Protein 1
Amino acid sequence: MIKLKAIIFDIDGVIVKSMEWKSQIIKDVLTKFQVYGLTWVHEILESWVNRKLILNQINALYPFDYEQALHEINKKNAKLENNPTINEGVVNFIKENYKNYSFFTNTALPEASMQRIINKLNISFAFKELRAFEDWSKTENVNYVLNTYNLYPNDVLFIDDNINHIHTVWKNTWVYTLHFYDYMLSIEKEIKTIK
């Protein structure tokens, strides 16, 4: 068994049960702006980078009121982020193991949203650093953690619910990855299977 030193968590879909409603908010807003009906928009949404970059990509190909759409998405998400649906298994793991590992976040959320959720869950004490991005990528954030904290790829586990992020981060950083596809997954059990 390997000895991990750090775990990097996505927030949406891992620490909180949120991806379903966040996806629905984006679909609703894009429908209002008459963009969601375009077939290729669905492909961009499946890549799920972050809300700002998604709207930027769509706006570059099909101009619409990007700023207003982003404002509406952020406003609707903020209401839900103030009362997040906790993933108790993950949050308990974080609270019980923050002295055993260096914990980081790596989320596509805007920084204010990330702070709102982490503060609401009272787990900021457990993290060495909270990383959010609006213009970076998850791979760049993982590389930042590796370089800043003098870690090797085999010291780090990256956990995300998006399989595209898992593949991209693994391919570009060689850190261990865990595709968090089920809210019932036990991180502790999954760590024991890493060889």
Protein 2
Amino acid sequence: MNANTDIRAAVPGEAVRAAARSRLYALFAQLFRYPEKPVFAALADGSLAAELRDTLAACLPAAAEDFDSRWATALRAGGDFDGYAAAYLAAFENDAPRPSISLYEGSYGQRRNDKPGLLLELKSFYRNFGLAMGDNDLEDALPAELEFMQFLAAKQAQALVEGTDPRPYVHAQKDFLERHLGAWMPAVAGEAQDKLEKGCFTAAAELLAACVALDATGIAAEFAGPGGNA
């Protein structure tokens, strides 16, 4: 999915928060996509964790309060890139040496019984905003859903900067968090706690679930106020 949207570096008021939320979802998407060397390097030297902390401070300050004590060390990768890539495959794809965690919404809850319907629903969501999946992606993949939230938050920030109506993007985010991303993140975090050893991927899943829950609450409040459906 091509969810890149250019947002000016300095934006006023609520646009700052929306732009920071867009960046937050982009960072999480990087963490859960198949490993790339630049992402590994940023995890290894702590710069990705530092960017997460600063981004959280700008958009979800409640999640940033204990970041250094709870998350900063856990979100650092050790060893080399090949070892990190092997750990990713073991955690999310290979079911070896222990059962892996699915990064697809259709593996959780009631949607397990209606994968085709879920994919069609998500495809409609994306198509409404001019987006389409790449050839090798499924609509319910976690990185795809994170990139969709990245896109919507970026468009919200852009609308606020340009003085156009941000409400369609706020509404879409509220709906998407309630019906999709927010509905299955607790299960992913629970699976990580049960199946994975403590480390980068477990911490990323737990932090993502906490951030999505906080963001869903904030978006619901925003939707009910002047920037939403009022």
